[in-house]
Protein 1
Amino acid sequence: MGFDMEMDDFLEEQEFNKKELERLKREIMEEAEKVHKDYVDNPSDISGSVINIHENSPFLDVDKYEEPVFSGSRWKHVIKKQ
């Protein structure tokens, strides 16, 4: 009798977990659809691309006149000199 009760409890918990996961999945999908619709209705000017430049980056180097050392096409092949 003890094993049967444990098995019944396990199956009930398993069924509850399955229903809870389905509910959460629906909730997440509904929220994702809202976000998508909002983006379609109000598109962003930002592309989503992010560029990070480290504080020691050669892209921040300047010459004696405080002008950028690298600009335009000179940015293509930059190697920091130590």
Protein 2
Amino acid sequence: MFRKSVPVFLILGACFTVATSETRGKEERQVPIVVTVNVDLEIVETGEAIPLTITVSNGFPSSIYHSTFSLTPNEWNGETCNVSLVDIYRDDEPGNLYLARPKMDIPITISGTGRREIKPGGKLVIRTDARKWKLRDGWLPGKYRVTVRVNNLTVDKYSKLSVLADPVQFEIR
């Protein structure tokens, strides 16, 4: 009886190995919200703005919401609400350079954030300047890789999500 069982276990083990190796590297998104980031300039001059365009795409069958003060840059950093530059690397050096997020000096006349609806299949565009985030040693010349996260996207009354974008690259000269 033992001899008949051994081949069955070997066959099952081989099938499992083949099935798992075929799925490696082909990971699909589990949540249909996609955040993409583009740097408006691939090469930025030292001291100039680093304009980022962040797009949130909704693949859910219902609306989702992004809470913010603004979708475009302003002097009190309202567009940075619920947006984070979480990983910032220069010239492939080890260690994240991120030091501090921008301070929001919200005018007294503004009572709170507004909810921006993103309809099913729709997109929301947020523009900001990466230089608003502080780095260890500052934004020095070099090649950068930056990962952006959009926080607190409201999916329903029970769920809020934070979604990472693929890293974006640019150079400061």
